[in-house]
């Protein structure tokens, strides 16, 4: 079948769609490695609060805890337990050393290391998933009310809306991939 374009154009189009589709795919369900290259540790006094503050978590994102399971673990706990570093009755416990936790709800998700002393020395993290809509929201004022007991929202909605838009585009990612397959098939 001939689209009325030269082969060169076909290839350029295919390449373009491939790149677009690939970049869109990446932004669906982002994976966040806690502590980035440091991982989940007590070494180096990683500031997990600061780490989390630089991220815009969304429902569907994956939180990845990477650590040596001989020395650490991951427990999801309540806000009160988070504040008190109380690891006596965790909601869930993860011990593989490579734990990926998919965020399925909005709001706060509190985690700590249950090894004695580790939470006290800072091995705890609060993953706060903001309630964002797919519709672009004006970013004039940080007016979205934080839920009770939370610190104020760090940044207004610019990043969040951008992220949301990507997500919307993400739904088109599969269509792009299909088009790429079709176009490539005809070259
Ligand atoms: Cu630990």
Features:
4-stranded antiparallel sheet; Immunoglobulin-like; 187 residues; 3-stranded mixed sheet; binds copper (II) ion; disordered N terminus; globular; alpha+beta; 33% helix
Q: Which kinds of small molecule does this entry bind, naming each only once?
A: copper (II) ion
The percent range for helix content is: 25-40%
For the CA atoms, what is the radius of gyration?
Answer: 21 Å
Mean pLDDT: 75
Give the end-to-end Cα distance, rounded to a whole number of Å: 9 Å
Low-confidence stretches: 1-6, 15-20, 135-184
Helical/strand content category? alpha+beta
CATH homology superfamily name: Cupredoxins -  blue copper proteins
Report the order of strands and helices.
HEHEEHEEEEH
CATH topology, by name, is Immunoglobulin-like
- Give a quick account of the main beta sheet: strands, pairing sense, barrel closure: 4 strands, antiparallel
Quickly count the domains: 1
Q: Which second-level CATH architecture applies?
A: Sandwich
In what order do the strands lie side by side in the largest sheet? 4-3-6-7
**Percent of residues in beta strands?**
15-25%
């Amino acid at each position: 079948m001939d689209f009325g374009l030269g082969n060169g154009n076909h290839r350029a189009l295919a390449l373009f769609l491939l790149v677009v589709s690939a970049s869109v795919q990446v932004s669906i369900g982002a994976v966040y490695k806690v502590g980035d290259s440091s991982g989940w540790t007590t070494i180096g006094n990683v500031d997990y609060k600061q780490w989390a503050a630089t991220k815009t978590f969304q429902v569907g994102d994956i939180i990845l805890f990477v650590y040596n399971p001989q020395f650490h673990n991951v427990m999801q706990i309540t806000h009160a337990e988070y504040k008190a570093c109380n690891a006596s009755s965790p909601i869930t416990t993860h011990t593989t050393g490579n734990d990926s936790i998919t965020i399925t709800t909005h709001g706060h998700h509190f985690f700590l290391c249950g090894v004695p002393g580790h939470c006290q020395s800072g091995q705890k993290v609060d993953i706060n998933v903001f309630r964002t809509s797919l519709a672009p929201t004006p970013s004039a004022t940080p007016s979205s009310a934080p839920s009770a007991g939370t610190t104020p929202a760090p940044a207004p909605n610019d990043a969040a809306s951008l992220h949301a838009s990507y997500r919307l585009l993400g739904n088109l990612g599969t269509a792009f991939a299909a088009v790429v397959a079709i176009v490539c098939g005809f070259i």
